[in-house]
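hey m, so remember when u said the tokens were messed up on ur end? i reran from scratch. heres the input so u can diff it against urs
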Amino acid sequence: MNNNQLKKRLILSVLVCLLLAAATSCSLVSANAKTGTGLQTITILRKSNTKNGTLTTEISSFKVEVVSNAKSRNKGLSGRSELPAGHGMLFILDNSRENYFWMKEMNFSIDIILFDSRKRVTEIYENLPLCTVCPFIKLKKPVSYALEINSGEATKFGINAGDLFELTED
């Protein structure tokens, strides 16, 4: 076998490896983060230290659509007539850049709960109003997740900074 044949085989082998790696990576991403297909359950938890250890209490749970791609994040809940009680939309965000929310074409008010990379509540925007000229809401800190729920549900369930979430597939 001459040098040209060896080079061609080497290049072909590298390309096959890259394609396999890309296919594996794509399947892992789709398995770990659904993009608007089906519902998952997000459970908000509170951990408290007691003299006997840590006590974990379920605060609330919501059936959510999980959105992780730019098109789904940009659309969000816009244009929908309502959000059933106990439902929401969980946004998977890029915490390495500034993130914004926009109430454009919303037909109902919402609460937005922000979470850091450890899935802990860092901030809650409550009762965001409907608007005709809608400003962008620039988030104050980098966040990894945002949960949109019906207006008033954050208060109703007593969700606070420091609470955390778990996501389970239905």
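this time it looks ok to me. Residues 3-32 form the longest helix (30 residues). if urs says something different then somethings off w ur setup not the seq
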